[in-house]
Amino acid sequence: MRIASRVIGGVLAVTLLSQLTACGSIFYPDRRGQIDGKIDPTIAVLDALGLLFYVIPGLIAFGVDFATGAIYFAPGETAQVAPEKLQEAIGADGKVDNTKLQTIIQSETGRNLPLDDPRLLQFKGSVEQLALLGLQPVA
Question: Which of 71, 73, 113, 136 is 20 to 30 A away from residue 45, measured at CA?
Fold first, then answer.
């Protein structure tokens, strides 16, 4: 009887430990912060295994991966847009027009970025950052 309880306890511990590690945010922390993309089937299957064994941890794993964006494949390519092209998106008052910016990025890189997504974080730059890029502040 004592051996059976140890085996059950060991299986339970291994199962819970594997559930804690079956999460895209743990395997790929560099993917966090993405808004959308193609879902990584490996991470989706690992999260689904959590649903198979325990419903609540599996749902939490899916929720965390979708909320952080770690379930999506990381884009493997980079694209650059010349700063002169980006000047067209800046209005006379110095504010950036998101629709013009989205059009410029789509025409230059071929990628459609959801700039109207409410989860998008926008940061204000400083004069020093503009100087490092060789740009003059216009406002």
Answer: 113
